[in-house]
Structure formats: C-alpha cells, structure tokens
Amino acid sequence: MAQKKNAVALVSGGVDSAVTLALAMKDGYQVHALSFDYGQRHGIELEAAKQVANSLGVVRHFVCNIDLRAIGGSALTSEIAVPKGRAPQEMSSHIPITYVPARNTIFLSYALAWCEVIPAADIFIGVNAIDYSGYPDCRPEYLEAFQHLANLATKSGVEGKSEIRIHAPLVNMTKAEIIRAGYDAGVDFSLTHSCYDPSPEGMACGACDSCILRREGFKNAGIPDPTWYAARIL
Fold this sequence. Notes:
Rossmann fold, 5-stranded parallel sheet, globular, alpha/beta
C-alpha cells in the first residue's frame, strides 16, 4: 500500500477549517493540523480546534503562539468593538474592522515552514470567497499569488524536489454547501466555534458577522445548528 502524503491544514476551530480538514483526510492525506494563539479575543476557538483535530484523527495538532495584539488594528486583536447585526450585503461591501492585518499571509508562512520540515507539499486552508466578510486574503487570486511565492521562497521549490500546492476546497462554495459537505464528511459541528465575540461562558453572541453567516448557513443547508447562543438574541 502506498504511503499517504503529508499535508498541513490550518485549523481555527470554526466550521470552514473543520470541513477543510475533514476533506483533506477524506482525500487520503496524512494531516498535521496547525492553529494559532495570536491574541484573538475569541481564544475559545483554540479549544474547539483541539477537539476538531482530535475527533478527525490528525497526526499532530500544533498550536503556535504569536502576539498580533502587539500590532492591533483589528477588532479581534484589540479593544475595538466587534460589529453586530450587519446585513450580508453590507459584510461584503467593504473590508470590516474584524480583518486582522496580513493574518492569512502570516499563517500560511508558518504552514509553509512546517511543510519544509515534515516534509510536505500540500497546505489546506478553509478560506471562502462567497459567504464571507470581505477579507482580501480569502480570494482565489491571493491564494494563487501565495502559491507562486511559496515555490520561489523555499529550498524544496528552488531545488525542484517538490511543488507547494495551496488547497482551498471551499473557496467557491456557499456556507450551506460547506455545511452539507462537512456533514457528509462526518464533521461534528457541535465541536466547532465561530463567534468573534463570545460571552465569558463561551456562548456565541449570535449577532457578529461570523455568527450570522453560520446561522444562515445551517438554516439554508437544512441541518440543525448545534451552537449555544446567548439568551439575549433568542
């Protein structure tokens, strides 16, 4: 039997990264999961990432500590208020304050470094350019550019030993399609966490962009949302 190929998957603990991880494993990769404690206000997502990774049986789950609060500039890494109650059209009309400067570039760079060590040639990331909050580093053209950079900037790429591939299987899917794909792949959505501004008890606010997209996605998929939302929005 041929040995499974190694891959690195970015796992945040949310729906999209959980489904991406499940799809990578369904495709036969031996997955190493990578998460980040970057000073995000929704740090509870790291426990979700751990549970998701364990439930799907990754080779290793590594949490890397970096301090993006030192840079700030985002509602997720500072005391700036998280926007609430926005319409989907408003979410995609401009780049919101929940955008973390260069976050996916930073995360993919760490994943790329790990690929050189494992070794691996495949990186999975759960970005989406359909039902999303307008982030510039979730677009197909960004992923294509990073993949080009990755093959110019690595020892393996320069020596021609392997070609780095960035996989974004969800990039052109709606949230409902993502949820259905995850359901079919065996994702336990009760382990995931999406809220940008959870309560101290870990309950989702139900009103931030991420909560709204999640709720609508489950509704449109016809699958029950297992999330515990704060009583005030019910």
